[in-house]
Write a structure and sequence with these properties.
alpha+beta; elongated; YefM-like fold; three-stranded mixed beta sheet; 83 residues
């Protein structure tokens, strides 16, 4: 059996009845959507999803910075006023 990674859960039937009420009740926390008591999806508010995407992008950019820091010896210095 798969672990439910949320303190809130609802059945697909409950989700169909009133998704807005579920989101309000969860107060921003993820909601595990269950089908026969097995999590099939997680419902999160748009704000939370956008925040997660920003964090993923920040993490990807940090990785690029780390990789490029090792290439500093190959860099060519320029003066911004010359550009």
């Amino acid at each position: 059996m798969r672990q439910v990674l949320s303190s809130c859960s609802a059945s697909i039937s409950e989700l169909k009845k009133n998704p807005t009420a579920l989101l309000a009740e969860a107060e921003g926390a993820p909601i595990a959507i269950l089908n026969h008591n097995i999590p099939t999806a997680y419902l999160i508010p748009a704000e939370t999803y956008e925040w997660l995407l920003e964090k993923l992008e920040d993490s990807e950019l940090a990785q690029i910075v780390k990789e490029r820091a090792g290439e500093k010896k190959y860099a060519i210095e320029v003066n911004l006023s010359e550009l």
